[in-house]
Amino acid sequence: MKIHKVGLRFAGVSSLVLLASSFANAADPATAKKDMTMSDMDHSSMDMSDMDHSKMDMSGMDMSDMDHSGMDMSGMDHGSMDMSGMQGGKAPADARSPDYSNGVPYGRFGKPVMMGSLPLWGVSVDDLGYQFDDDQINYEFDTWYGTDSNRVTLRSEGSIQTKDDKEIDSLTSLSYWKPLSIFWNGEAGVAYDTENDKSAVMAGIAGTAPYFIETDARAYLYTDGQVRLDLGAEYEWRLDQHWVVIPEVELTAFSKDDTDNHITKGFNEFGADVRLTYEMLSRQLAPYVGISYETALGNARDLRRQEDEAVDSNSLTAGVMFWF
C-alpha cells in the first residue's frame, strides 16, 4: 500500500513536467520554428503561381521529404532572390590582364619574348676543301637571316681552279625560305651562274627524307629558256660522338642543248663523294678527308670526248666544315 502511494506521486510529478514543457514551447516561437518540419507534407495540389519568394527566409526549414511533383510555380517571381554565393556566372572585366601578367611589372629586362619570334642569323659552310688530282678548291655555304618561319637565304656553291687561268665556276642564289611541313622547307628567289654567265629564277625544296637522308631539289629557269635541275642526297653515318662518315651524291640535268656551254639535253653530270669527318669538342668545326668522283652522262660524254675533255675524274679531298 505504501509502494502504491509513491508510484502515484511520481506519475503526478511527471505529468506536471510534460505540461510545463508544452507551454514553454508554445510561448517560444524560435523553438517552435526549429522543430517545424515539412518532410511529411503533400504539396501536389498547392498553387504557388502568384507567390513572391524574394524575401522568404527558409534557412531553418527541412524539405528533404517533400513531394513537389504537382506544384505549379510558373508565376513565381524570383527577380529579387540573392544567389551571389552560388558558383558560376560571368567573371569581372578586370579578372585577368590581356598579357596574363596580372599587373606585375616585367622589371628591367622588359617583356619576355619567345625565341622563335626573334630574328636570328647563321652561317653554315658545308664544304671548303681541296681536290688534289683536279687541283681546285671546292666550296659550298649558305647564310640566312630571319625566324623559324620566314628567312632570307644566300647560298653559293662552286669551284676555283688553282692553276692556269684561275677560273671560278659558281652558282649563287638569293631566296626566300619557308617551312612547308615538319620535314620539308621551300625556297624561291633569283640566281646567277658564272659558268654560262646567265641569271635565273630559282625554286626548290629541301628537307629530310625517311631514314634521315638529307635531300634537296632545285630548279633554275634561265633568261634564255634553259631549265637546270639539281638533285642531291646526303647521309650522316655516325661512328661515335666525334667520327662521322658522310656519303653524298648529286645529279644535274638540263632541258635543252647548249653546245657553247658544253651542255646537252637530259642528265649531264653525276657526282659522288665520301668524307670521314672529325667533329671537334664544340661540333662547330669538323676537318675531313675523303674521295670524290665525277662523270659525264648521256650525250654529255660524247660532247666532252669531241672537245678532248675528261669524261670521268676522281680525286682525294681534304678540307673543313664549320658553322656559327
Shape: elongated
Quantity of strands, as a count: 13
Mean pLDDT: 81
Class computed from helices, strands and strand pairing = mainly beta
Q: pLDDT below 50 for ≥5 consecutive residues: which ranges? A: 1-19, 23-27, 29-39
| Main sheet: strands, sense, barrel | 12 strands, antiparallel, barrel
Question: Can you count the helices?
Answer: 3
Classify the helix fraction into a percent range. 10-25%
Q: Which series of helices and strands comes N to C?
A: HHEEEEEEEEEEEEHE
Rg, Å, rounded: 46 Å
Strand content: 35-45%
Structure keywords:
13 strands; twelve-stranded antiparallel barrel; elongated; 324 residues; mainly beta
What does this structure look like?
This protein has 324 residues and is mainly beta. It has three helices and 13 strands. Strands 1-2-3-4-5-6-7-8-10-11-12-13 form a twelve-stranded antiparallel beta barrel. Strand 2 and strand 3 form a beta hairpin.
Topology:
Layout: H1 2-27, H2 29-35, E1 120-131, E2 136-146, E3 151-161, E4 168-179, E5 184-193, E6 198-209, E7 213-222, E8 227-234, E9 237-238, E10 243-254, E11 266-278, E12 285-296, H3 299-306, E13 312-323
Summarize the structure.
The protein is mainly beta. It is 13% helix and 42% strand.
